[in-house]
Amino acid sequence: MKNPKAMIRIGMACLLVCLTWPGFFHFTADLSPALIDGVRGFLLGVSIGLNLWAVRLICRQRRGDY
Predict the structure, then answer these.
(1) C-alpha 43, offset from chain centre
(2) 45 phi and psi angles, rounded to 5 deg
(3) Of 14, 24, 37, 50, which sits most exposed with the smallest number of CB within 10 A?
(4) What whole-number distance in Å separates Cα of residue 58 and Cα of residue 55?
């Protein structure tokens, strides 16, 4: 993935789903609280990782290292 704008969009989408999932989306299936916390933690980690990676790519492109 070499397009930082796309990475930021994906990261922000993961963050949006992580923050809004338990409050707005109620599933009919019984999901354990541990599973919900695990999925939210995974999405938050993906979001942070992609956003930091995109910032690093943007900085490298501005310096001309890339």
Answers:
(1) 5
(2) -65, -40
(3) 24
(4) 5
Tokens 């789903």 belong to which residue? 17
Quote the tokens at residue 4: 């930082």
Q: Mean per-residue pLDDT for 24-44?
A: 80
pLDDT-above-70 percentage for the chain: 88
> Quick one: which H or E segment has residue 50?
helix 33-63
| pLDDT for residue 45 is more than 80 | yes
CA distance 16 to 39: 13
pLDDT single digits (tens) 1-30? 678 899 999 999 999 999 888 777 666 567
Q: Rounded CA gap, 22 and 46, in Å?
A: 18
Residue type, 40: R
